[in-house]
Description:
- The complex is a heterodimer.
- By secondary structure, chain A is an all-alpha fold.
- Chain A has 24 helices and 4 strands.
- Chain A folds into 2 domains: 263 residues, no CATH class; 230 residues, no CATH class.
- In chain A, the strands form 2 sheets. Chain A has a two-stranded antiparallel ribbon with strand order 1-2. In chain A, strands 3-4 form a two-stranded antiparallel ribbon.
- In chain A, helix 4 packs antiparallel against helix 23 and helix 6 crosses helix 7.
- Chain B folds into 2 domains: 164 residues, P-loop containing nucleotide triphosphate hydrolases (Rossmann fold); 63 residues, no CATH class.
- In chain B, helix 3 packs across helix 4, helix 3 packs parallel to helix 6 and helix 6 runs parallel beside helix 7.
- Helices cover 37% and strands 25% of the residues of chain B.
- The termini of chain B are far apart.
- Chains A and B meet through helix 6 and helix 7 of A and strand 5, helix 2, strand 6 and helix 3 of B.
Amino acid sequence: MSALLGYTVLGLVMGAGYAVAASGLVLTYTTSRVFNVAHGAIGMVMAFCYWELSAGGLVPGGLPAWAAVLLVVGVIAPAFGLAVERIMMRRLTESPAGVSLVVTVGLLVALIGLAQTLWPPTARPVEPFFGAGGVRLGGVLVTYHDLLTIGVSLAVAAGLYLLLGRTRTGIAMRAVAVDRDLLALHGGRPRLLSSLSWAVGAALAALAGILLTPIVQLDYYELTLLVVAAYAAAVLGRLRSLPLTFAGAVVLGLLQSYAAGLRAAIPTLFLFAVLVFLPQVRLRSGGIRGIAAVPVPGPRRVAAAGLALVAAVGLASLLLPTVQVSRLALGLVYATVMLSLVLLTGYGGHVSLAQFTFVGVGAVTVAKLGGSPGWPSPLALLAGAAVAAAVGALVALPVLRLTGLYLALATLAFGQLMDKVVFQTAFGLGESLPVPRPREFAGEGAYAVFVAAVFVVMAAGLLALRRGRIGRMLVAMRDSPAACATLGLNQRGLRIGLFAASAGMAGLAGGLFGGLRGTIGAADFQVFKSLPLLLLAVVGGVTSVTGALLGGLVLMLLPILQSEVPALGGLVFLLVGIGAVSLGRDPGGAASHLFRAGRWARSLVVRPPAGPVEDSTDAPDSRVETEGMSLRATP
Amino acid sequence: MTPARTTPILELMDLHAAYGGIEVLRGVDLVVPRGSVVALLGPNGAGKTTLLRAVSGHLRPTSGHVHLAGTHVNGASAEKLARAGLCTIPEGRATFPGLTVLENLRLVTYASVAGRDEVLERAFARFPRLAERRGQLAGTLSGGEQRMLAMARALGADPALLLLDEPSMGLAPLVVDELYEVIAQLSASGVAVLVVEQFAGRALGVAEYAAVMRGGRVVAMGEPADVQDELPGLYLGRGLERGTG
């Protein structure tokens, strides 16, 4: 009896923490229509800030806990939220929602990198508030920290309810997401309101991070992933209803506490279940849409470019030292994974946050088959692709109804589930599996050429697909599912096929990845690896093969730059951030700039400059002084 | 600054505005005298809505001048203009569908000198139907009721100038009558109104002046009776030199 009570208390406390995080997520989403994937990462960084102020070396002797909390939640976090809104999010209100999703993924990646740079991994114990003291409740010790957490979440709930339901500012915050222009016509200040919501959202993320830290300890990933739980709760409230969000958070906390054995998997299972079983409202957000078409090259140019690439890699493998050659091969493997995103995201319009999971499936398959006789390596590669494709189709089945943001979240949940459950089992605890290479391409140079050839073949196939009937159907389905339905297109089959094909491509790349590494472990396919992948695919240009190649090479270069030139570490994150922000302006990615440059060089005709079109709501402060001006005859 | 009573409430001089490289307004000259109702007519694509966007602060003119009550306001933000007493009701429903009627009206107080209760009182006195539905989400109201809710903003906000885009579009004739009664009432209380309509009849009934736009310019302006006679020709393109440039 008392054990049950104990679990209940723990569950309630967890739920209260989740509720605080989830409410911040809902608040920013309702106000800005940007689903902040980095919400947990903000909480994580702020929890580290709190540690730095209270126990770290920054302040001699450390600030008292209450002062540190006040400083982080009241000053640092809101200022950070303001900065994020100002620098990254403001220009995103008009851009396709998929782009804003990717930009927040960029923020998440940058924040984790920032935290790892500022606070290198070491044990950082965080004491609960008020130490270990507490009250006895039916034989169970409820610490003051637990009571504080529950109290704070209730206060947040009441505060948000009053703010959004009762005050004019709160009502305007709900209005601004629906129609910024109309609110401006009412005399409300859209920019001020978005800033406010990001400031409050960041403060709530910080609060949740600090409250939950004594339970989960300071960890880059654990704290960031706490937000999967917050997502789950927020999605139960359909990203709108605060009471349902709170209920979801508490149920989730309790479930997690009762089913202690499955603790790590509960939030993702819950998220997946909520996404699949709840009746869906149509969300405006999520798909990558409205992307200007990039040119699809004809077969002759594809063949020429492909041969040139393979030849260049061959030449490089002869000239460069071995280390560089395998790096080049790694870049090409990443580029191959990104090809699968070109199909899924660029052509199909679906955002996947777990593409690296399929890479893992392919790699594990090749590793398991590779040891057994009768499976020559090239055949094992294809088997890996087939298994990944089958898994992709299986994932596609339950999530067929989902679109956009919800679909992206479902892929995240799936990736997390595979990471926590399947891969852990497949690899055993902390073990790694050897992955063989095809015998003919055992050398580093030969393997790099092999990878390049596979990339070229897959890219050529992809482009042929895009030029053909299926490509037209995919793009049509991306741009207007309704129109496709009226044309009698079988969207269900097409979507399953799309997911399967994309997963298969990633699985094939997984076999290549495993062969390149030689051995693979569970840590290679964590769901977090998928996020930089998606980010750089989109920065490179997710609608084109060129973009995939660019993105793959940059993804390979980033960690190298960071480790070899530590001084550049900060710069790298900055670059990622800038890349993400520039997406708001040009969703075609870096590749579209290349194409434009190429066209310009070819035609040698300067494009006419685009005429100035400015929306003065978002334009810099007007030069005209209207302060105190009144049109009214009687003021 | 107290502009003379004779200063027009709105004066546009050689106003140009563009979406990207496409110029939509090509030198508009237009005057709305204080307290008067001006109907702005013209066929599809003449630039009427763009004109309202340029005046309301949502589209920065590329050249030319917008004077509101004698003040040069090119590039002023929409919210500042709204707070200064310019009320713009765009076409369509022009309400926040996810907010209740009461919450929609609460937002009116941003631009109003009247308080919350005063705004509600005026809105409900004119449109008792809104009072019945005060707790309902605006998105669940009928089209006519949503339009009333939008018009209630003009009643509550005490504007000096009201810009209305196609108030009659898609509404039942009875509702249109009701809306035009409100326009007449506002006009009688001294509010200047610039009302855009594609179909001229209803607007010409309340207007003191009418202007006709075509191809991004005002091509005719005068008393409603004079303009009405010329309308078919202006709409269909006869009887008028098409300007160049």
